[in-house]
Q: What sequence folds into this?
């Protein structure tokens, strides 16, 4: 009953929604707050059911589409993704000599900052070469890892290969995208050029 949820501090009043995540944490919202944010119940459930950084597959693409957010896609070499101590929780294998899980940890740090405005996903670059090309990423497995934005207006905004892939560089990439500075691949390359020439030291990790 709803009284149990109130007694156990899951909610403070009714009507409310409560969602239990994989980690055992509860996400709740009162209905008056929900509608105040301009969401509906389905939208709230979808928004809070999607992981911070999730694997994009055919079965969940429609759910991401319903969110209506631009997507930052990280293409990885997932041939050995199950070769880990915890398959399904830790992504095994390497992309470009870098552990996939390390790359995803960097992306998760960025997602914590921007997940209300951008969806963050990863997918197998070996299986999605056509999608990579459509986003301005070329060269197949040899060019993994690669990242690019997927936008509703089909702009090509790939992450520059001149920059290291880490939380700092990706945070700046997302900030430039959200501010409107990045409208094309040329804009992304120009931003990378300025970053490399900046007097401020860059995280080269």
A:
């Amino acid at each position: 009953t709803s009284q149990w949820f109130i007694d156990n501090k899951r909610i403070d009043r009714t009507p409310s929604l409560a969602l239990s995540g994989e980690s055992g944490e509860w996400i709740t919202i009162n209905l008056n707050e929900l509608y105040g944010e301009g969401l509906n119940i389905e939208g709230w459930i979808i928004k809070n059911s999607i992981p911070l950084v999730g694997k994009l597959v055919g079965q969940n693409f429609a759910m991401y589409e319903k969110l209506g957010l631009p997507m930052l896609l990280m293409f990885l070499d997932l041939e050995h993704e199950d070769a880990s101590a915890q398959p399904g929780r830790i992504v095994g294998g390497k992309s470009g000599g870098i552990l996939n899980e390390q790359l995803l940890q960097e992306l998760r740090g960025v997602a914590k900052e921007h997940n209300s405005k951008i969806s963050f996903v990863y997918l197998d670059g070996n299986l999605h070469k056509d999608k990579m090309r459509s986003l301005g990423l070329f060269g197949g497995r040899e060019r993994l890892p690669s990242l690019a934005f997927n936008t509703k207006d089909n702009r090509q905004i790939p992450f520059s290969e001149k920059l290291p892939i880490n939380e700092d560089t990706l945070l700046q990439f997302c900030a430039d995208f959200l501010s409107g500075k990045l409208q094309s691949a040329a804009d992304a390359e120009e931003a990378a050029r300025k970053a490399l020439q900046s007097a401020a030291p860059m995280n080269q990790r």
The first strand starts at residue 16 and ends at 20. The chain has a mean pLDDT of 86.
